[in-house]
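Sample 1 of the test manifest.
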Amino acid sequence: MVDNQNQFPVDKLLNWYEKNKRDLPWRTTKNPYFIWLSEVILQQTRVKQGLPYYEKFVHNYPTIEHLAKASESDVLRLWQGLGYYSRARNMHKTAQIITQDFNGIVPNNYKDLLRLKGIGKYTAAAIASFGFNENVAVLDGNVYRVLSRFFGIETDISSPKGEKEFREIAENILPKNEKSSIFNQAIMEFGALQCTPQSPDCLFCPLESGCKALAKGKVNELPIKLKKIKIKQRFFNYFIFEYDNKIAMKLRVDKDIWQGLNDFYLVENDSIFDKNTLKNIDFIGDYSENIRLVSKIYTHILTHQKIDIRFFHIVIKEEEMNKLTAKNYQFYTKSEIEDLPKPILLANYYKDCINL
Ligand code: SF4
């Protein structure tokens, strides 16, 4: 257990925040729906990339009821390009629950927020603190890093023990007054701008005199994170079947990546096909001579998966069009495809390479 928790220089951190904070729209609101939206968008996403999405959502769905009433397809289309689509699906479902069961009013405390689907400890704390000034610590990756370095803590932040230890420290140093919300924002911003993962600005750091990691020369070693993410390799062979200037697409309904988005005819295999191997593939073989375009291999990286992808563009006859329709594929024009939610790699490839 860290013994110098009461020495955390709260005022120095707050002064730093006052001078250095970024001007961001969710910092000037107490609307819990907007705060929730910003936190969901910013999980795994940088501020610069997330900001336009925040603005689009606030514009299209200015209240929680607007979001609840939207179709999942429209929500996912607006989310397209942010990745982690389950975040959008969960938020949409929870907006419907809040609208139906809570009269559209977001619960105003940490405990009740945690009961909602898709709202974890971090998001519940952020809404309770920023929206309702509850004295609850908000712990994101930035906060773990600042605490680990300042107090020189070597406990693995990905372990349950680490989570408990860091939470206790964060709760202990949190001012239990009207400054708690600002303090939470300040320590997160400090981690994002000053005490960064790769090149923290220790030379001009207001916390430098008390920083244990700096004193022990362990800045680059902390925080400790032992749990390594296992990456699964997958191979996607996509067939862009064209009939009468329309393309076959299908909604992905299985519990897998991109659920709720549309994609082309997919053959997942243990390798990427080339023109020759296609001859042996059921359904495709007959068309191996009609291929209009074979793309290069694209690599798409997700948190837990690395996917190699190749596209084959094939013009088909009516008979095959009927077979695909029977398999729940629908044929869309280029402008209709533009409006469908789709994985961003497919959207970009289609836009750039397929001319109908
Ligand atoms: S001295 Fe360096 S490591 Fe320590 S808190 Fe400041 S920026 Fe972070």
